[in-house]
Amino acid sequence: MEEWVGELWHKYITRKASTSFADAKVNFSQVSKSIGMVYRALGGEDIKRVEAATPRDYLVRRTILQKISGENKQISLAWQDEDSLRLPESLAVFPSTELNYDLYIWLAVLAANHHGKFQHWANDNQRLVVKVLKKYPAMKPRYQRLAQATVDIRPVFGKLPDNEQAMEKSIIEAILSPGSVSHFPIVNFAPQAVHLWLYPSAHVDPQLLPEYQEIDDLAQGKEKTKPLAKSAASRKKAERIDSPENRDGMMIFRLESMFSWSEFSKLDRGTDDTEEEDEQYQSVAEDLDQISLSQQQNQKSASIKIDLDLPSASEDDFPIGDGISLPEWHYKKQQLEADRCLLQPMLPKGAMPQKLPIKLQKSAKIIQSQFEQMRNLRYWLKGQAQGEELDLNAWLDFHVEKQISATQEKGLYQSFRGNNRDISTLLLADLSMSTDAYLDNENRVIDVVKDSMMLFAEALNSVGDNFAMYGFSSVKRSHVRFSLLKNFNETYNDDIRGRVQAIRPGFYTRMGAAIRQATQVIHEQQNSQKLLLILTDGKPNDIDYYEGRFGIEDTRQAVKEAIKLGIKPFCITIDVEAQDYLPYLFGSDGFTVILKPSQLPLRLPQLYHQLTSH
């Protein structure tokens, strides 16, 4: 009975204290695609994620009802940093759904035109609004509607102290006439949130691992932590704190109170005592408003280092040579840093000559017959000075131009030629540990990759195209594994088939280094057309600083380097989330997503046919 009454009271008091319009609420998930398109179309950075932001602490004057109910302690605001644009999880600011939707769009436009950091929040926002309205005059009616609606819901002057009244008056004038206010009084409480403006980024300290810092105790000897599942809530506010200074731990027992998860106590607990289920970590993280993290400083001499990432030399693939030094792109410095990666060419262990598997033989014959038709394909070479027939289109263009002005006669003939496929293709396959995942009860991703590579090789071998095949994975920048399956000088035979069938899931996906090496290999070929196919099941990542934007930017730079050398990169992926990052890496027409991975073995040769046919 008490719980029932308490629940009714909580609902009542929360509803009375709330200033939002629940019936007109618009959720971020409903408009995220539209916002993303608007943001990027108007100049926002392509690489930035557009995502929801959890509420943050906001010291504003609250009513008695809000204090009783706990409302209005945190507010969801719009802000951005170098990684993402973060907008409120939902907007119920205005009594109209249309206005709340318009507010999302306005914030996206505002963010697309804001670069750098805020010096003075109110003055900078005024200048930004003036800039946007001048640049996009069509936005003025929308802004005027939002500005008036914002003023209508702000607190009444008479209920505020004198100094806060002056602040509120300045804010309203700045909203209605942006750029007209230069002085804002100092007050003890923050003014009611101005949802029309952007806010400074929430204080998030740098990543736990500084850029390029190699910490063996964290990066090696441990399996990569399983990522927590995405919840409805978005990113949390974070802070970085110092690790406990005391050398020895102590046990604390307090009867008078209990620790909450949001408290931080300097307790040195044994590493073995901290193992808990991932589900418990996730539920706790979702309940926290702010997550505090520290780096534990363990003495290396007091621990035994066990490397679980790399297999022993007797069980590993066979290395070829001492490795190849490669550069890597530092996106913050906007420059290539030489000799940042060491790429190790390798041959698959246990590779023995093998025939094409029986299950693939029927499909291989069908694909081979389709590709063999390309050998006999003949076509008209147009716009020639001599030829078997008159090129009617060229003659018509010449006739029209001649009527306008004196025009010199040019190629007016067409010649019938045989098909000359002057092309080199390199297939680069992602062999990261994620390929060990099962697609169904029988097949893993790596099994589909093997089948795809073999059918691809059978098809290209039948048409006589010059091709090579490699695989890659990585364990940090000092160990990028580059598996040799077939180079351009080798003849496709049972030895190659055996290598492909011997490949195994590897480690992580340092894609930039692999693409650079593949680019060098294919660049040495003398063919006029060069195609680099990248087969992957996820985005670039590694267990060091390469995770996140570093990996994305380095891969994008490697792709640009390949294009500059006249090579055409094309990505084939089975990652359902690839639309979020592949357009930035390869361009809108530089990739394709295979929604049913089981279809990849047949789709890969078809895609090659489409990319290389005249």
UniProtKB/TrEMBL annotation:
UniProt-listed InterPro entries: NorD/CobT, VWF_A, vWFA_dom_sf
One Pfam family here: VWA
Organism domain of life: Bacteria
Name of the protein: VWA domain-containing protein
Residue span, VWFA domain: 424-611
Disordered: annotated span: 221-244
Biological source species: Thalassotalea castellviae
Matches recorded under PROSITE patterns: VWFA
SMART domains: VWA (SM00327)
